[in-house]
Design the sequence.
């Protein structure tokens, strides 16, 4: 993907080469060598006419039929093969061009027979365009991004002809209806598949197809209404997939999805199952997901304890268990997560003391455990000083049963937000708070604190 600034740099360099070429008679025969094939240029202009609604957006001015615009390889959003001159990349994504769909995609696309990268994402104004059948004739495509284009209808079987396709993003087309992944099952080079927001409530073959795409690493099926089919056992299929990034959030799934996912325990790096499970508990086997760096189980109805095995997920950077009904205490093993940066345990029913080991995680930036029943004292132990420094910025323990006096916060000089309101803290407001120069929010009301210095109380009340 080319970012806005990167494409500007490309255009800038292109202009530079063009102007040197056309003005500098000392170079060669004085004429820049045109790489663009005229037939492809005419196809591109037809594609523009078919896609672009001038009343809604602006199109890159580098495109045109004028003599000085003959080098289509230098038009914004276009890349050509630097040997053959054929157009290999067309990026009219919203960031790159204000180009907007008028109805269906242009059939002139098939005239770009060497196209390997097509991005029309975000360029939609008309609801209800279809994925055209001729898409199957773009046989060299390796990247196809039609996300956010208001596509509707079904995936045509011809899409399955794109055997070289590695990246397929059809996400965020809310009217897309996918009854089967049969055509996608033939995309054997696929690495990334994003069908988020499509209606897949009848696509009972989704697990089977995913299991059999040999190169798939990245699967995003957010909010697809996925049927909770009992996943077929992987031992029955010949799978060599290495799923690493899986986002199934916002689907009505059940605990059987865990069993299926544990087949990928060695490869999973990023798993999002938020808002997708009800009335189940977190299996102990999660601890086998040793490569996991990000786990989101927020907003489910997960009950029971946090498994002790979590202490074996030592690669975690991001852990969100908020918005569940988890009980019991936070496992001691959390201190094993030495790379942890973001931890959210808020809105659960956790009790017991916060393990001291958590305060010894040298990378922790945000720690939230608001609205639980955590008790005990806050004690930042001396051994915590084994870290060079603590990057903790947000500590949110609002609405718990923390007792005792405020600890010395000097260990956490980067604290920006400190939420300790609605606990059972007592004693004096510690002067160490005065050394927290980054503090923006201090919330300590609804405790039994004496204010040594009234300005702290003011600060905490302003912060609300
Ligand atoms: C053509 O592009 C390839 C890959 O982008 C690059 O390695 C190569 O040096 C280029 N050749 C010329 C002649 O610019
Ligand atoms: C272009 O967009 C405008 C505004 O949305 C719309 O009224 C018009 O019908 C569009 N033109 C075509 C040819 O679709
Ligand atoms: C888009 O294509 C479909 C199917 O080919 C066709 O029925 C529909 O009329 C086309 N829409 C427009 C605006 O051309
Ligand atoms: C597709 O385009 C969208 C919007 O431009 C972008 O957010 C997304 O990352 C792209 N998908 C892929 C697979 O590159
Ligand atoms: C493309 O796919 C269709 C439907 O699956 C099939 O009938 C056709 O033969 C394929 N074309 C090519 C060129 O493979
Ligand atoms: C999804 O498609 C099914 C079957 O066509 C339909 O019954 C259901 O209402 C659709 N769901 C949504 C959210 O549109
Ligand atoms: C399983 O996959 C391997 C490697 O891709 C392949 O060699 C083998 O033929 C496949 N077996 C079956 C039964 O499909
Ligand atoms: C693989 O998934 C199936 C369900 O799809 C499950 O029965 C089996 O236990 C899983 N195997 C492993 C090793 O996780
Ligand atoms: C939750 O699951 C348990 C055991 O699996 C079952 O007995 C109970 O009826 C379920 N409750 C609801 C509300 O589905
Ligand atoms: C962590 O993994 C080790 C080695 O696989 C295992 O022996 C141990 O029981 C696991 N700990 C927990 C709490 O599951
Ligand atoms: C911490 O990790 C080690 C291996 O890295 C493991 O043996 C141990 O069981 C873990 N501790 C807990 C409490 O999970
Ligand atoms: C807090 O701890 C630091 C370093 O250990 C120490 O210098 C400072 O005096 C303490 N502050 C209070 C108010 O106890």
Sequence:
């Amino acid at each position: 993907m080319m970012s806005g600034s990167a494409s500007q740099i490309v255009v800038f360099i292109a202009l530079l080469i063009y102007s040197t070429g056309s003005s500098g008679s000392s170079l060669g025969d004085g004429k820049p060598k045109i790489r663009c094939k005229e037939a492809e240029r005419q196809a591109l202009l037809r594609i523009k006419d078919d896609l672009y609604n001038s009343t809604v957006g602006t199109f890159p001015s580098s495109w045109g039929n004028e003599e000085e615009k003959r080098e289509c390889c230098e038009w914004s959003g276009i890349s050509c093969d630097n040997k053959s001159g054929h157009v290999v990349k067309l990026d009219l994504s919203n960031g790159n061009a204000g180009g907007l769909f008028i109805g269906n995609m242009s059939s002139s696309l098939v005239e770009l027979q060497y196209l390997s990268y097509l991005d029309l994402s975000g360029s939609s104004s008309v609801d209800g365009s279809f994925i055209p059948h001729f898409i199957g004739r773009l046989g060299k495509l390796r990247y196809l991004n039609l996300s956010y284009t208001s596509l509707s209808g079904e995936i045509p079987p011809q899409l399955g002809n794109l055997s070289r396709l590695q990246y397929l993003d059809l996400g965020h087309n809310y009217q897309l209806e996918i009854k089967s992944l049969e055509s996608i099952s033939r995309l054997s080079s696929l690495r990334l598949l994003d069908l988020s927001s499509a209606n897949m409530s009848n696509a009972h073959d989704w697990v089977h197809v995913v299991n059999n795409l040999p190169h798939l690493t990245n699967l995003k099926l957010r909010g697809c209404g996925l049927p909770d089919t009992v996943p077929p056992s992987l031992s029955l299929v010949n799978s060599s997939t290495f799923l690493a990034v899986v986002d199934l959030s916002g689907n009505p799934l059940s605990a059987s999805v865990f069993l299926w996912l544990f087949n990928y325990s060695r490869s999973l790096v990023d798993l999002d199952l938020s808002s997708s499970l009800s009335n189940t508990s977190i299996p102990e086997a999660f601890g086998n997901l040793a490569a996991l760096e990000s786990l989101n189980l927020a907003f489910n109805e997960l009950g029971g304890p946090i498994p002790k095995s979590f202490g074996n997920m030592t690669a975690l950077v991001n852990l969100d268990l908020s918005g569940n009904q988890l009980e019991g205490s936070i496992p001691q093993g959390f201190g094993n997560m030495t790379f942890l940066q973001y931890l959210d345990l808020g809105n659960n029913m956790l009790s017991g003391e916060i393990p001291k080991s958590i305060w010894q995680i040298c990378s922790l930036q945000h720690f939230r455990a608001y609205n639980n029943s955590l008790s005990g004292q806050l004690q930042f132990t001396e051994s915590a000083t084994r870290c060079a420094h603590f990057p903790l910025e947000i500590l949110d323990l609002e609405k718990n049963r923390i007792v005792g006096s405020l600890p010395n916060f000097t260990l956490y000089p980067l604290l920006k937000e400190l939420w300790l309101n609605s606990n059972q803290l007592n004693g004096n407001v510690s002067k160490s708070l005065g050394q927290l120069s980054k503090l923006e929010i201090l919330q300590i009301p609804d405790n039994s604190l004496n204010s040594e210095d009234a300005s702290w109380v003011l600060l905490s009340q302003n912060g609300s």
Remarks:
- The pocket of 2-acetamido-2-deoxy-beta-D-glucopyranose (ligand 9) is lined by residues 279 (CB under 6 Å).
